[in-house]
Structures are given as structure tokens and as C-alpha cells.
Amino acid sequence: MGILLHTFSQTQPQVQNVNMRSPANMKVDGELKEWTNKNLSAYNLANRIFYVVSNDDIYLYLTVRGSGSAAGLKILKEGITFTISHHIEKDKRTKDPQNVSVTFPTSQNGMTVSSIMYAPTLVLRYVKDTLKYRKEIDSLTAATNVRVEKIAKEIKVVGIKDISDPTISVYNDKDIKAAIHFWRGEPVVEFAIPLIFLDLTSANPVTFSYNIKLNVPRLNGDFAIPQKSGVDYGPTGISPDDSYRFTETELWGEYTLAKKK
User: Fold this and answer.
1) Which of 39, 116, 194, 200 is 20 to 30 Å apart from 99, CA to CA?
2) Domain range list for the chain
3) Sign of the dihedral defined by the CA atoms of residues 83, 87, 90, 96, in that order
4) Roughly what angle, to the nearest 10 degrees, separates helices 134-151 and 118-126?
5) What top-level branch of life does the organism fall under (predicted)?
């Protein structure tokens, strides 16, 4: 896995550096069917995610594919927060009260997430011979997605004046969309935010900042600390996967809406 991650990091940018029109058949369903390149536009090593930001004339989209089972556990447990800021300066974009953010999925029970992740972990073991194990992979994936849909039902929204509730249903009437499914053992999360809520328009595009954050559990306001294992993992005694899962990771990028050609 480490070799694969290194290879991806060498062949793709860590942060997306181009704007992109969304595919004409774009659907927010947690699937990658619209994307010919399943590795999307960028691979961020610290976050262990492939991702692409795109837009049409109505929505700003984010598609994320987590890399590996640790990413699946992290994303399914505490979700991804997608934040939009009109500032591009580092000292302003983080704390701007006008920022808009959406988080999905919302925090889930750890035991439930661990049981759901059992099947994706098996899929990742099969993935080197996808043709031979296609039937098993499809069966495990379908069963996993049924369970995921039952728990991932709310979106946390911050910064949109028309929305006063801290969370809204994925079936909301504001046309804010989010979905998560597993693909070959790895989580795919998609967001769509109406441009009107972001004060953006493709007719007069401006450059703005976006943040993608993979959240982690908190205990009494502080980040939870992973337990040391009996395996020799060096001075910390904590495996790289556990360190990643219990460390909040994020990235900032800049984007300008792509006009229709």
C-alpha cells in the first residue's frame, strides 16, 4: 500500500490546480460512473484521498475517493467537511465568518462503522484479481452500501443564512446534495452545493478557496488519542494507520468556476 500511495503521489498533483466542468450526466450518488479516470484530478497523500472539484452552472461539486480501509474508517466515522471561502489569503480564509461548509456523513457510532467496514476490507484483499472475484466483490459491495445508506442520512451545514438547523436530511428541500457509497472497498463521497448559496456564478467567475477536511473523533473537546499496540511501531508505538485515523487532516486549494464552452 505504501508503494502504491507513493506512486500516486508522484503521478498526480497533491492539490487540484485546474478548473473543470462537471460531466453532463453528473449525479450525486456516491458512484464514479461519470468519471473515466477513477483516480480523479488529484491525490493528496496526507489525507489519503483522490478528489476532484468541478462545477456546472448550478452547482459546485466535490467528489472524493478514499484510499484504503483506514480512509474508509475515518471518513465513515466522522465525515468530510467541504468549506468554501471567498478569501484566498491564508490569514483570512480560515476564520472568515462568511465561509460556507457542509459535512457528510455526520458522526457515527464506532462499533457500527467497524462492523460495516468488515466487508470493504475483504474487498481490498480481493482487488488484485478483480475478474476472478468479481461476483464476490459486487456482492460484498452491495451489502455494504445498503448498510451505509441506513446510517448516512444527515448533512451538517454551516454558514448558509437560509438554513438555521445544524443538520438537514439528505432529502432536504434546499437542493444541497451528499452521498456515500463504497467502490472496490473504498469510500466515495460526493457533494453538490447550489452556487446561489455560495454567492458564486459561472457567468462571472472569481477565484475562491476551498478546504477539504477529514474529521476525527473528539473527547470532551479534545482529539481522541489512539492506543499503543504491542507491535513495534517505533517511539510512538502507534501504527501509521491509527495515527492517520486519529489525526485531523486537511488541504486548501483555489478554484475558479469553469464556464460552459
Assistant:
1) 39
2) 2-15+35-256
3) negative
4) 150
5) Bacteria
Q: What one-letter code names the amino acid at 234?
A: G
What's the DSSP call for residue 255? E
For the entire predicted model, the pTM comes to: 0.90
- For 204, the grid coordinates are 462571472
> H or E stretch including 110?
helix 110-116
Sign (positive or negative) of CA dihedral 4, 237, 246, 255: negative
Contact, 192 vs 176, CB < 8 A?
Answer: yes
- Can you name the residues that pair with 103 across neighbouring β-strands? 81, 156
DSSP string, 175-234: --EEEEEEETTEEEEEEEEEHHHHT--TTS--EEEEEEEE---EETTEE--PPP-SS--S
pLDDT band at 224 (very low <50, low <70, confident <90, very high): low
Residue 85: strand pairing partners: 209
- 163-168's contacts with Cβ under 8 Å and 24+ in sequence apart are 167/106
Helix (H) or strand (E) holding 126: helix 118-126
